[in-house]
Amino acid sequence: MTPNSFTALRLIAAVAVLVRHSLIILDDDISPFGPVGTDDVPALGLWVFFVVSGFLLPAAWERRPQLVRFVSARVLRIFPGLVVSLLVTVAVIGLIASTLGVRSYLVHPQTLQHLASNLVLNPDYLLPGVFAENSYANAVNGALWSLGPLFAMYLLVPVVGCIPWHRVRAAVWTALLLWCVVAPLAEAVDTDGIVWGNYVHDILRVGAFFCAGAALREWRVPLRGGAAVISGSVLAIVMVLAPDLTWFLAHLAVPYVLVTIGAQPIPVLRSAGRFGDPSYGVFLIGFPVQQLLIHLNPELDWIPSILCTLVISVAYGYALWWFVDRPIAGLRVRPGRPARTDRVAPRGAALRVH
Fold this sequence. Notes:
Order of helices and strands: HHHHHHHEEHHHHHH
Distance between the termini: 40 Å
Strand content: under 5%
């Protein structure tokens, strides 16, 4: 596989997700930025994960267009790490932070519901008595919601990939991108409706970036550094002069810039995966770890709070990679062939704090 910087992009995105979450859930008196809402900080980390997945997965399907193999690889990529992280959250973090006794907590119906719902990618954010006194009360893990939309986009890849002409596939992904962007503006869909535990407008937002990454791949758009610089500069100018156009233009400029960076073997970035890819673990555990630190020490200043969360989450991410993700990756390789960890499909990460 050609050396690239996509692993580094995913790790940077995971850190961005963690920091954004922390700024939102920290007490207003601790954070120097005061009250921070979900719309106050761009979800750039979330965009990165969906763009990268959208760009790489159509190529994975094109190399081996086998439905069972493709779906099983995606299942093995998402669910083992999710199962482990849910158990850690429930059995360790939850027990420490819950106001209930151990037995009452473990047998509470909400505990089982939290596990069961999240295992089928239907987000559930509550555990009985957990983080009840935090400033961002009761929210256990706001980073799980996008796994459902991400897995749905995974399943869409072989559907579009069955079309034998790449220009038609590109046109389909472009049409889906336009639908995701334009439909809410034209009020063609009920954006406040809920599908499998998620608001429709949230699903369309992340779906648009996945489709943008896939469209870039299928159109075979040349990736040039100069063009990426120009795209980013134009977006920055539009954000200042015509902010109403920012959201629309972001779906064109941001994916191109990200994919251009990721496709390059940038010396510093390309070595980021030398010891593994901790990004999924950072995404899965960052939110509850930050909430736990707030629970244990509500007066902890925002910088050490975020840094401690980052250190713990990165350590967990590497542990998850070495003891769960990496061994599981070998199951997706044909018998008799060595595991190719550099072909592991990327996985998304996201954040949810409503």
